[in-house]
């Protein structure tokens, strides 16, 4: 049931508000805003990523240099150990040669074991082959 | 409000900018303008140039026993400018290292010097003990010290090195280039704590090459012991022995007594340090007759059985020469001339040869020339050219007087006879750096037939003649005795100074060893057959057993 009066019927309906156009302009702006925000976020993320990558690379470079320094120190220590071992070897070789001296062995054989050198007359040879 | 905040932010940013700008300018100043000078300063503080000394090569005998090697030692030095109590430091160093403090103190007290040696090549353990005391002003440098573990064995042959490890005598000198190696170099970067953190420049050292000799330390030591006993028994001035392999010329022993400890060479008298077997000459006496007989046989003037009627004396120019033992006129074959060592017989053969041919054969046997043995300072001997012979020279030289030879020349000559007429250059070095020496010089000086005849005659010397004390049971020995007067300073001969010698090859049927013994100025007896032949017998007996050379004497 209509509630309006005839007078009201004679009023022209108010002009429709020009909303379609503002609505059309507001949608691209919002999208652009969103896109810009996304782009900014991406930039930030990318920047953080790059910073992270650079940080890792820098840390890697530092770690590698530290490792090289440690290796050099280890090399130096090993070089000194090698020199010491060579020196010990030389000392032992010298002792070995002294111990192998014929005069000493003969003297020990005579003194401790009562050995005497065999003369040619006491030495016999066995011919094994034809 | 927001304006205030903005202003503060802008101010803060401005301050930051100024701060960073300042840092930037400072960085540019340090890394640009001051870069070179700071870099030089840094290098002097943290860089150190180090010389890497090369280890000297080891000398082995033929059995691989080390005769000379480098040992770790420490050189202690001092900076007198940093030593506050030189007397106390000298006393402490003297206590630890055994250095005389009174000799050391003036060096440590001399403040005008920045470097003095405290002890060169000191014992490393004692030096380490001193280092632990952290005495300011003392520094320690590792060095290599040459050591001869067998002490006096082959001391004259090995020689010695100086304090800087350079060869000064003997084989150490002869082979210095091979043994020394080449020092290297490193530039080190150190942190403030002195730890090496980088090596900037590295040229590695080249170690010295090892040398293997033909000497056998057992044969050498035995020869030296026999010579020591011989010198003692006959109160002789000195004695020399050579043992060599006639097939190759390899010298198995080269002994000189009296000897000395090679580790203490600075304390040994100079005359003991000479290797008389190579550098000294002697008149060989009757051992030289083998040359005269060899020449006569080779020239086909005689055969071993050719006989001569020989009076007791012979006139040669203005001289009268006689045999060693008084006798009547005898008839000797050439073999008997050698067996009985007849001077008259040898001179008779020489007169048949004539001076030119005899002189040529003397040269052919290597006398008057260096053998080329790998040892420094070899003497060529003293041999008069034929053109300078006087009328009486033909009466001296054939019997081994008026001519001077070295023991190594004589040993090589007999080795040629033992080696079927082929002379081989005697040598001491077998390998250098693991590589064999190039093939050795050999030349034929006698025919096989003449060499065989000589060996038979030399066997008779030992079996029936003057060399009976050289006989070895079970073995055939071929050899010759020699007894020669020594020249005096007036151009004549001393009446009571002799050199007694014996040189022989054993086993005579297939000789493996030639052994020569010379005894200088024996007393109590002078004859080679009495003084030197027994020493030969002892040396050769030992060597035959040691080398396991079976007997060759006919059984039954």
- Biggest pleated sheet of chain B: 7 strands, mixed
How many strands of chain B?
23
Q: How far do the termini of chain B sit from each other?
A: 137 Å
Tell me about the largest β-sheet of chain A.
none
Helix content of chain A: over 70%
Determine the most extensive contact between two protein chains: A-B, 31 and 38 residues
CATH-defined topology of the largest domain in chain B: Beta-lactamase
Summarize model confidence as the mean pLDDT of chain B: 91
Low-confidence stretches of chain B: none
Rg on CA atoms of chain B, Å: 35 Å
Task: Give the N-terminus to C-terminus distance of chain A in angstroms.
Answer: 150 Å
- Measured by DSSP, the beta-strand proportion of chain A falls in under 5%
- Unreliable stretches of chain A: 1-8
The helicity of chain B comes to 25-40%
Q: What top-tier CATH class of the largest domain in chain B fits best?
A: Alpha Beta
- The coarse overall form of chain B would be elongated
Characterize the structure shown.
The complex is a heterodimer of chains A (130) and B (556). Chain A has helices spanning 6-10, 20-99, 102-113. With 130 residues, chain A is mainly α. Chain A is rod-shaped, with a radius of gyration of 53 Å. With 556 residues, chain B is an alpha+beta fold. Chain B folds into two domains: 50-72 and 148-209, Alpha-Beta Complex (Penicillin-binding protein 2a (Domain 2)), CATH 3.90.1310; 217-546, Beta-lactamase. In chain B, strands 2, 3, 4, 5, 10, 18 and 19 form a seven-stranded mixed β-sheet that branches. In chain B, a hairpin with a 5-residue loop joins strand 2 and strand 3 (66-78). In chain B, helix 12 packs across helix 14 and helix 12 (289-298) crosses helix 15. The radius of gyration of chain B is 35 Å and the shape is elongated. The interface between A and B is medium-sized, with 31 and 38 residues.
């Amino acid at each position: 049931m209509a509630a309006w009066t005839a007078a009201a019927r004679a009023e022209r309906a108010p002009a429709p508000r020009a909303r379609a156009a503002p609505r059309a302009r507001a949608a691209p702006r919002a999208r652009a805003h969103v896109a810009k925000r996304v782009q900014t976020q991406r930039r930030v993320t990318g920047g953080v990523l790059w910073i992270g990558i650079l940080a890792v690379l820098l840390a890697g470079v530092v770690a590698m240099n530290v490792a090289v320094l440690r290796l050099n120190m280890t090399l130096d220590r090993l070089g000194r150990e090698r020199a010491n071992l060579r020196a010990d070897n030389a000392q032992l070789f010298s002792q070995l040669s002294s111990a192998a001296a014929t005069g000493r062995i003969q003297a020990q054989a005579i003194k401790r074991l009562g050995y005497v050198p065999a003369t040619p007359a006491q030495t016999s040879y066995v011919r094994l082959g034809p | 409000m927001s304006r205030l905040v903005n202003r503060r932010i802008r101010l803060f940013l401005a301050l930051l900018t100024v701060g960073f700008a300042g840092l930037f300018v400072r960085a540019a100043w340090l890394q640009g303008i001051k870069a070179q000078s700071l870099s030089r300063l840094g290098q002097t503080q943290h860089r150190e140039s180090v010389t890497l000394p090369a280890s000297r090569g080891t000398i082995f005998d033929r059995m691989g026993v080390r005769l000379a090697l480098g040992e770790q030692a420490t050189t202690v030095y001092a900076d007198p400018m940093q030593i506050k109590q030189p007397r106390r430091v000298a006393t402490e160093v003297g206590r630890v290292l055994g250095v005389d403090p009174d000799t050391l103190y003036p060096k440590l007290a001399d403040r005008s010097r920045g470097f003095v040696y405290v002890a060169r090549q000191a014992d490393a353990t004692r030096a380490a003990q001193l280092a632990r005391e952290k005495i300011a002003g003392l520094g320690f440098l590792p060095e290599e010290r040459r050591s001869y573990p067998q002490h006096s064995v082959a001391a004259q042959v090995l020689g010695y090195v100086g304090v800087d490890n350079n060869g000064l005598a003997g084989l150490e000198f002869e082979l210095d280039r091979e043994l020394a190696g080449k020092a290297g170099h490193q530039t080190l970067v150190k942190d403030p704590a002195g730890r090496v953190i980088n090596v900037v420049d590295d040229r590695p050292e080249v170690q010295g090459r090892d040398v293997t000799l033909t000497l056998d330390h057992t044969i050498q030591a035995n020869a030296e012991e026999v010579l020591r006993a011989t010198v003692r028994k006959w109160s002789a001035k000195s004695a020399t022995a050579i043992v060599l392999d006639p097939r190759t010329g390899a010298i198995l022993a080269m002994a000189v007594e009296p000897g000395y400890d090679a580790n203490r060479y600075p304390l040994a008298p100079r005359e003991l340090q000479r290797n008389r077997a190579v550098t000294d000459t002697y008149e060989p006496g009757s051992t030289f007759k083998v040359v005269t007989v060899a020449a006569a046989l080779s020239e086909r003037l005689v055969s071993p059985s050719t006989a001569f009627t020989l009076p007791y004396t012979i006139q040669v120019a203005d001289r009268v020469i006689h045999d060693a033992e008084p006798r009547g006129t005898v008839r000797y074959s050439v073999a008997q001339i050698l067996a009985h060592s007849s001077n008259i017989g040898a001179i008779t053969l020489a007169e048949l040869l004539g001076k030119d041919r005899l002189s040529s054969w003397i040269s052919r046997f290597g006398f008057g020339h260096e053998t080329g043995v790998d040892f420094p300072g070899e003497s060529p001997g003293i041999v008069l050219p034929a053109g300078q012979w006087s009328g009486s020279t033909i009466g001296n030289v054939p019997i081994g007087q008026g001519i001077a030879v070295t023991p190594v020349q004589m040993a090589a000559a007999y080795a040629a006879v033992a080696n079927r007429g082929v002379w081989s250059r005697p040598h001491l070095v077998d390998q250098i750096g693991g590589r064999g020496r190039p093939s050795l010089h050999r030349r034929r000086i006698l025919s096989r037939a003449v060499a065989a005849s000589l060996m038979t005659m030399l066997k008779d010397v030992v079996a029936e003649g003057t060399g009976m004390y050289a006989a070895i049971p079970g073995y055939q020995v071929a050899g010759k005795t020699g007894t020669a007067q020594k020249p005096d300073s007036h151009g004549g001969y001393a009446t009571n100074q002799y050199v007694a010698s014996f040189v022989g090859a054993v086993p005579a049927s297939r000789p493996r060893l030639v052994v020569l013994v010379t005894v200088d100025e024996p007393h109590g007896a002078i004859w080679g057959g009495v003084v030197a032949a027994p020493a030969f017998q002892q040396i050769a007996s030992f060597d035959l057993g040691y080398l396991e050379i079976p007997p060759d004497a006919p059984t039954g």
